Amino acid sequence: MSVAEVLEFPVEAPPPAAIGSAAFSVETIGMTKRFGSFAALDDVSIRVRAGTVHALLGENGAGKSTLVKCIMGFYQPSAGQLLINDRETVIKSPKDAHTSGLGMVYQHFTLIPSLTAMENLVISRPHVPPVIDWGKERRDLEAFLANMPFRVPLDTPISELAAGQKQKLEILKQLYLRSKFLILDEPTSVLTPGEAEEVLGLLKGMANRGELTILMITHKFREVEAFCEDVSVLRKGKLTGTGKAADLTRSDMATMMIGEKTLNKVAEREGEPDTGKPILRLEDFVVDDRTGLKTTNIETLAVHSREIVGIAGVSGNGQKELAEALGGQLTLKKGKVSVDGARYSGRREESRSHQVRFIPEEPLRNACAPRMSVAENLSFRTFDEAGEKQVVWLRQGRIRAYARELVRRFGVKTASIAAPIATLSGGNVQRAVLARELTGYVELLIVTNPCFGLDFAAVADIRSQIVAARNRGAAVLLISEDLDEILELSDRIMVMSEGRIVYETPSAGADVMVIGQHMAGHH
Length: 523
Description:
alpha/beta
């Protein structure tokens, strides 16, 4: 027994040499975190065995993020201990966590947007020489990437990468830093099924070889079944169940996550698309990306009333540029976009007159003012509709009443409509944006990765709202890197590859393998 154990003092984080090159176990014992009188985490004890992939499940707000933040040193627990290889360890900061061999791929990106992928990887190291030999760094990184199942463009600024490419780089960064215990927070949210299989297959292989231990936060039961040995489930800050993944059914896991309440099922598509005059039409559509090096070129694309057209594709194949051009963020190089027969360029007055609504990717960043209140964010679409003579945005009573009604109708969970919208969970930010965009008559709805990083209960709600808009007569263009979502919601599916539409099929009877081949560029 060590002196530290005799005196009942926890030891500091061990240096990397003490950890060695093999994977190690991590265990929390009675982990508790209170914020005032609120217990975000309450007496949670889990053990992640060395060389395994361990799933951490739970709805948004269940305590998953609080637990991993305690492990990674962002929070200091109010009570409880952390054991690394059965040795009590105090992690006071993320730097301590890194020194102890702990790494994390966060749900929200931690990359520096103005720097390139190579620059982000190099500066992520704890020790960077004052004078960097970029030639040597490039050679080392190319050798590193040669052994990875995916790669990213090293010289492209992060701001120009699609979400899926950023997520891959976040995973690569932790592998590059040689973390031996890796926490993954929704690692495949923006990856295609093929990419997810590759990435998780690589990581599981490393775990099986004893090189890595993984704690994975996920809401995808198929990932638990395919890649995880053990499962722990949190609900309202408490541990509600653990077990071997092979011994648990999806019903077992869902019950531990949400109790006995019934999940909302995704609404069924009702009625057939109106194949007359299209609501949205693209002709000879050509737009360059922000670097000017890649071009998206769509000869023709049409979306009709009461139709969801799903755009599938591997991240970085022109979907981002398509969405940004339709939203007025990129200028067309050539061609025409029309809505209900009239030329459309994405300006606010055009969107209002043609009832065009947008649900962008990462809504807190792209569709909200984070520091403004829930009520103020909900009023963005309508605050000036009465014109200059009636300054509606000064009539706070009307704004609050309007917000309360939308919060009620769309099930937005918030402590107060006066709270900053940034304080809401990801699913509730998305519900708030849906409430704002889907209220009133909608002729065209353009949606990009609407369920990125959300728990499966929130996913069902959001997808139901999209299908309901379609059933009410809206034309819906769904741009998503989640093929399951495309298959579930779409009436018609198109695949983008290298900036072009390369394949089209009705969703009924669609062959997933054929879609996947076209997504991968085999066409």
